[in-house]
Amino acid sequence: MGNSLKIQDANTLDLENSKQESCFVLDFLTECITVREVIRSRVYQEVKDFNTRQPDYFKGLVQPTDTERSLNGYRLRQPRQLDWEQQFSKALQAFENNGFLILVGEEQLTELEDEITITPETTVTFLKLVPLVGG
Asked: What's the CATH number where 112 sits?
């Protein structure tokens, strides 16, 4: 039996409104994993799901090349299969450049090799930072 990890997405605007964008579960073979492994599993699963279903919009962690951002996700200019390894590389870069934060409960993890122990109560939040717009 694998270890199920609850994943939720949020952005800085959601935190003010106390709501999350989405929630799903990833399964792992071990109860101790790294931040890098969570990102890899998440990106692999979302790209696999997209490539299987081929919806109009990709709703993933990072924006694929040659796409337009919209309220519904990222719209591909030309229908195609996405490369999970390319998306994984972009996600690692985004994490290292603070494009999103990873929280386990209330604690922020800052290194790719930081470890997460999976328990039934463990929730990992991918917090996407939304730039403030001034006027």
From this structure: 2.170.130
